[in-house]
Design goal:
The protein is of the alpha/beta class. It has five helices and seven strands; from the N terminus they run αβαβαββββαβα. The strands form two sheets. Strands 3-4-2-5-6 form a five-stranded mixed sheet, covered by helices on one side. A two-stranded parallel sheet has the order 1-7. A hairpin with a 4-residue loop joins β5 and β6. α2 runs parallel beside α3. The protein starts with 6 loop residues before the first helix and ends with a helix.
Length: about 160
């Protein structure tokens, strides 16, 4: 349930998964897992749309963009492999065709808000998840533990749990 792992750490997780079942996800929220799936699906329906990801967290969060925002970017990139992240647009920066903007806001005690905005030129689709409490992470972890019961060696994540 964390992000920011080095390539070496990720390889160690993959190596362990060859011998034991490992559940690995940057976010344990079922809602975020669904948001990733929906963002990927919507991006596939609108291949020429501008896509922007906005994430909001409390004012003590140290990383930007959040690991969850990067998970959303990676989900969209599955249907747009040429996409490049533009984190924190500033100054003269005309939007390129293949970019996906990621904007980070830090304020107050916000647990977490993640939005994916898809603009086709004639319509805007906004997908949004708001964490009201951190309880959702524990709930997702319990569901993941249930899902892992009886699994053989392999690397599992929230998307494999959703089926």
């Amino acid at each position: 349930g964390t992000t920011g792992h080095t390539d070496r750490e990720k390889e160690q997780v993959a190596q362990a998964a060859r011998e034991i079942p490992v559940f690995f996800s940057g976010n344990m929220s079922l809602g975020i897992a669904l948001l990733c799936r929906l963002a990927k699906e919507a991006a596939g329906y609108f291949p020429d749309a501008d896509i922007e990801i906005v994430e909001i967290h409390h004012n003590r969060k140290v990383d930007a963009p959040s690991g969850t925002a990067l998970m959303l970017f990676d989900a969209v990139r599955q249907v747009r492999p040429q996409a490049a992240a533009n984190c924190g647009r500033s100054g003269e920066c005309r939007r390129t065709k293949d970019e996906i903007g990621i904007s980070s806001l830090r304020m107050g005690t916000v647990v977490g808000v993640h939005e994916v905005h898809i603009h086709t030129g004639s319509q805007i689709l906004t997908l949004r998840h708001e964490a009201v409490t951190r309880d959702m992470l524990a709930e997702g972890a319990v569901e993941a533990a249930r899902f892992m019961e009886g699994k053989g060696p392999g690397l599992y994540d929230m998307q494999s749990m959703l089926g």
